[in-house]
Amino acid sequence: MANVVILGAGLTGLSAAYHFEQAGFTDFEIFEMNEEAGGLLRSFMIDGFTFDYTGHLLHINDEYFASFINTITSLDAFIKVTRNTAIYSHDRFTDYPFQMNLFGLPYDVIYECIEGYVNRRAGLRTPKNFYEWVLKYFGAGMGKHFFFPYNSKILAYDMRKVLPSWTGRFVPKTNLEAVLKGAFEQKDTSNIGYNSQFFYPKTGGIQHLIKSLERATKAKPRLHHKVVEIDVKSKTITFANGATTRYESIISTLPLNELLTMVKGSSHRSYGAAAEKLLCNSVVNFNLGFNRPKLTDRHWTYYPEKQYPFYRMGFWHNINPTSVKPGHTAIYGELSYLGKNTSKAARTTLVESAVAKALTVLGISEQEVVVRKDLHLTYAYVIYDAWREKHLENLLKNLAHDGILSTGRYGGWKYSSMQEAVIDGKIASENLLPKFFGAQTIKQQTPPTTAKQINAL
Ligand SMILES: Cc1cc2nc3c(=O)[nH]c(=O)nc-3n(C[C@H](O)[C@H](O)[C@H](O)COP(=O)(O)OP(=O)(O)OC[C@H]3O[C@@H](n4cnc5c(N)ncnc54)[C@H](O)[C@@H]3O)c2cc1C
């Protein structure tokens, strides 16, 4: 029996393990249901092409995260890229972000966006949902031509039922000067937004990060161990393969809704009902490799309009030329659906129509497609609805009371990046170390976790 059990060997779980070891604590075990570690950060090599579970690009703005990467691998193992992206609407490309780049759109659309911005509901004190939040900060025109259709597509959910609390650093705000200047001429806005620059491994896809972390950690995840039950009274975990293990504390990175259905023996009787209320959409990611040497110089394009089943298409050959076979190009496309409302047959129809539309949009014939890999992300974007806002904190507290620290993107039921996954794992380890290890004996090898911003890397 190990004192601490880590459930899930995605980036958060592996980060917790790594940080335990860095502090000199080794009395833990990691369990993972899949045949390999990595969770969403796995890459697939097929016939000379490398695909991820859709584009996974590293955005580094935390000093500790940068030093973590430099320790487990090296920033030299990554290419550093300045974003080159566009939005495709009204049959033309305009620059991202929409709110600063109206130039090139039809005049009546520009007029609607500026008029909407000038008359936006700036006085609205607390927008009740994302819809109102857009009306407050961007106005009805920008809502109509970008924010509402794009976000309805990516979240597969009603914008009036989504709270604005996820927007944070993900949606850059604007001002009248930027709106007007961006309407009169094409401005360079490549430095705007959290994703203006990104790092990507020179080889091996994003899984390079996981492989490096596995190499830097002595403990090895026990694979093919799918958790099915956690008895918090007897402190026993049961796996689908029949194995069991005892524990003192758990760090869980499993999807929170599934975790809640697994817990038995808790005095908190509402877990089952809560699991039903937590909403998250799914994404189908279609990857296609083409026998064509040239295809756009962009890294990705956003497709807000309904006529395109996908919300985004990315270009592997521009993200990293070694991701494709020499003389070839490749794309990833992403479309969302809400699992609960979408049958398997409906999903298949959706993906096939998305692939057909993608080829038409790019002007590529079926004969040029040399590779196709569809990947399903059962858990993709958590829905920030009113129920989540009201109950999440208490749910996590109750679980902690039951000895389970639920963390990571789906353990914490949130919208977060790889950087946050590493920091979540570190914080989880720091929370448990004093309990098992005696605070005075912890080796302080890393600075305590703070999300310090760094200006440039
Ligand atoms: C569409 C999409 C695009 C993204 N793009 C980016 C990006 O460009 N840049 C960025 O920084 N971040 C991006 N992210 C976020 C990034 O993927 C996550 O922050 C990160 O992968 C979260 O890691 P995790 O370990 O918390 O979760 P996961 O990767 O989900 O790991 C959880 C692990 O638990 C295991 N598990 C689940 N159930 C069980 C069970 N019952 N028993 C045992 N094991 C189990 C899973 O197999 C998995 O290995 C993106 C996410 C999505 C969905």
User: Total number of β-strand segments?
Assistant: 19
Indicate the CATH topology of the largest domain: FAD/NAD(P)-binding domain
Q: Provide mean pLDDT, rounded.
A: 92
First and last CA, distance: 43 Å
The CATH class name of the largest domain reads Alpha Beta
Find the CATH superfamily of the largest domain: FAD/NAD(P)-binding domain
- Summed up, the helix count is 14
Order of strands, main sheet, comes to 7-6-15-16-17-14-18
Question: What fraction strand?
Answer: 15-25%
Helix proportion of residues, in percent?
A: 25-40%
Folded structure, characterized:
With 457 residues, the protein is α/β, with parallel strands linked by helices. It folds into 3 domains: 4-80 and 204-277 and 386-441, FAD/NAD(P)-binding domain; 85-184; 282-377. Helices cover 34% and strands 20% of the residues. The strands form 5 sheets. The chain has a 7-stranded mixed β-sheet. A hairpin with a 2-residue loop joins β6 and β7. The protein starts with a strand and ends in a 20-residue tail after the last helix. Bound molecules: flavin-adenine dinucleotide. Flavin-adenine dinucleotide is lined by residues 7-13, 31-34, 39-41, 54-59, 226-227, 253-254, 283, 377, 380, 408-410, 416-419, 421.
